Amino acid sequence: MYYEQSISKPQNVIIFDFGGGTLDIAVMRLGDEKREVYASGGVDIAGSDFDRTIIEKRMLPHFGFGRVKHHPEILEMIHAIPDWMALPELGTPINKTILEKAIQAKIAPVRLKALIELIYNDLAFTFYNRVEAGKIALSKDGATVISLEDKNIALWDMYTRYQFEVDIHHYLVEVEKVLLNTIAKSGLELGQIDAVVKTGGSSNIPLFTNMLTRLFGKDKVKESNAMSSVVGGLAIKANM
């Protein structure tokens, strides 16, 4: 409804709503007296998955991954880092004792001290925010730095857009498949689509914008206000 205010004649439109939790796609006829949805689809892939992938692919070595072996209880803690819901549950006295004994035994002491800092000094929320900020920065910049510093942690990692695109490429394949299947369900051909309207923060990731441009052409891919267009549409609906 937000996009519909900007058109002067009927169009076949794809709404590509790609946010923090899901991708939702609708193939619609807009601008007619009777708005029509030809097909809809989606998948549980979005910004939070990309954050988790960055941590899994790039951040875990800062906390002992690759250095700690034959200690399954410590490896379990390291593998829990990408899950923001699981990490706070690790802050038990037993786990702290396990980590402190490993440090005394000279097992990756610098990295395990960083892990203790992350778990026990309330740095998890800050850490996840830094990762998300780095991801967002790569929508505009070719490289960014993800960093976190505190008493026993000094994390600094240069991360490029190319690395990010390699890390999440398997998601691109899934997203393109869902998009093409939804269009097929609508009965329309790619050439019959007049516009692809992007909304949601993840829709600004260049890897996915380039995919839409490749499929539909640059002129058909329309930028919407990524963070407020849905709210704008709700306001229009409420005022009708």
Topology:
Layout: E1 11-18, E2 23-30, E3 36-43, H1 47-59, H2 72-79, H3 93-104, H4 109-120, H5 124-137, E4 143-150, E5 153-160, H6 161-167, H7 169-186, E6 195-199, H8 206-216, E7 221-223, H9 229-238
Parallel strand pairs: 1-6, 6-7
Antiparallel strand pairs: 1-2, 2-3, 4-5
Helix pairs in contact: 1-5, 3-4
A few lines on this structure:
The protein has 240 residues and is of the alpha/beta class. It has helices at 47-59, 72-79, 93-104, 109-120, 124-137, 161-167, 169-186, 206-216, 229-238, and strands at residues 11-18, 23-30, 36-43, 143-150, 153-160, 195-199, 221-223. It folds into 2 domains: 3-46 and 168-238, Nucleotidyltransferase, domain 5 (2-Layer Sandwich); 48-161, no CATH class.
Q: From the 3D coordinates, which CATH architecture of the largest domain would you assign?
A: 2-Layer Sandwich
Mean pLDDT: 91
Helical segment tally?
9
* Structural domain count: 2
By CATH, the superfamily of the largest domain comes out as ATPase, nucleotide binding domain
User: How would the global form be characterised?
Assistant: elongated
Describe the protein.
- The protein has helices at residues 47-59, 72-79, 93-104, 109-120, 124-137, 161-167, 169-186, 206-216, 229-238; strands at residues 11-18, 23-30, 36-43, 143-150, 153-160, 195-199, 221-223.
- With 240 residues, it is an alpha/beta fold.
- It folds into two domains: 3-46 and 168-238, Nucleotidyltransferase, domain 5 (2-Layer Sandwich); 48-161, no CATH class.
- Strands 3-2-1-6-7 form a five-stranded mixed β-sheet. A two-stranded antiparallel ribbon has the order 4-5.
